[in-house]
Amino acid sequence: MEREISQAVIRRMPRYYRYLGELLDSNVERISSNELSKLMHVTASQIRQDLNNFGGFGQQGYGYNVKFLHDEIGKILGLNQMHNVILIGAGNLGQAIANYVNFERLSFRMIGLFDVNEAKVGKTVSGVEVHHMSELQDFLMNNRVDIAALTLPKDNAEKVAEELVELGITAIWNFAHVDLEVPENVVVQNVHLSDSLMQLSYNITQI
Amino acid sequence: MEREISQAVIRRMPRYYRYLGELLDSNVERISSNELSKLMHVTASQIRQDLNNFGGFGQQGYGYNVKFLHDEIGKILGLNQMHNVILIGAGNLGQAIANYVNFERLSFRMIGLFDVNEAKVGKTVSGVEVHHMSELQDFLMNNRVDIAALTLPKDNAEKVAEELVELGITAIWNFAHVDLEVPENVVVQNVHLSDSLMQLSYNITQI
């Protein structure tokens, strides 16, 4: 696919994937865009538009084959391959994220946690060992790592991100409260919890 | 303000607030939209447009007064008042979120955690007591609660959300992997971690 697809569309794809997964679990074999529209509370035309970015998938008069569409969106999202994930910062949030990644039925596998706190080193979280940060380079030489999650205070996040990029990491899942400056060939996905909380707070003022 | 402001604008406001807070911490008193533009990697015209939604704040030839703009955006976001938060689901993620909310310099205060697991009841997380779910109604009668965070499995989230709404909660910070159906006067802010991870996964395929 040569044409660039907007991040707004990409942001909606996981939601399709989630709803189609639930339909699959309920043994629904096919669904019209109108039915999907009612279920997801988006317009049928939005659904058709979104999916047309990837070539459609629907058949006139039949609707969508749920399993086929689920699989195709999975492929688009890169979920047909396993991603090895490491995590820097094995505090509360880091441990929650490690558990989360391993428990979700997704194509992601937590393979190592890193922290500077000696008290945490050698322990396991969700079956995954916590290593000292000084072991990072060795670990990256011996393991394929596709994604690094950053769950550490913002003051350290920039420095660690730089180090990760130097060591060849090209995808960062960033929970630190800072926008990372990275080269163009590195992708960053931010989860800014306090931004989310402030957006909620704004919407409360509008009730 | 009568005119409705788009969620896309609202989503960007916390980021302004964050950058202005950092400028304040660095004792910067004023900043031009061009300087702010360079710092935040958005166009100066985007900044002016965003802030014009709320009436502007800049002065020709002077730029923005950092403290004033920070305070005004804070007010817009409702951060000039304290929000009492409770959390349902005191697992790993719940504990991380409880810590997070209390440690951030924000206008949010975690005042109670709830869980069905007897082993957790009576313990404290970040100084906040874990109550049994059966105490929820009493708690809500005796405490002002502005926001309920849901950090529980998706199978229970819908039922608990319904219960919360019946008990008068009008703002939900939802971490459960499900889109909640709520009445119109209830606001929901979702943090779908796996959606975020899938968006990252997609962007990896585009590197």
Q: Sheet with the most strands of chain A?
A: 7 strands, mixed
Query: Could you name the CATH topology of the largest domain in chain A?
Result: Rossmann fold
> Which geometry of chain A do the CA atoms define?
globular
For the biggest β-sheet of chain A, the strand order reads 5-6-4-3-7-8-9
Unreliable residue runs of chain A: none
Quaternary structure classification: homodimer
- What is the count of DSSP helices of chain A, taking H or I runs of 4+ residues? 8
Q: Element order, helices and strands of chain A? A: HEHHEHEHEEEHEHEEH
Helix content of chain A: 40-55%
CATH homology group of the largest domain in chain A: NAD(P)-binding Rossmann-like Domain
Instruction: Supply the helix-strand structural class of chain A.
Output: alpha/beta
Nutshell version of this structure?
Two copies of one chain form a homodimer. By secondary structure, chain A is α/β, with parallel strands linked by helices.
Q: Secondary structure elements and their pairing?
A:
2 copies of one chain form a homodimer.
Chain A (H helix, E strand, L loop, with lengths): L6 H19 L4 E2 L1 H8 L3 H9 L11 E2 H11 L6 E6 L3 H12 L4 E8 L8 E2 L2 E5 L3 H7 L4 E4 L3 H13 L4 E4 L12 E4 L2 H13 L2
Parallel strand pairs in A: 3-4, 3-7, 4-6, 7-8, 8-9
Antiparallel strand pairs in A: 1-2, 5-6
Helix pairs in contact in A: 1-4, 2-3
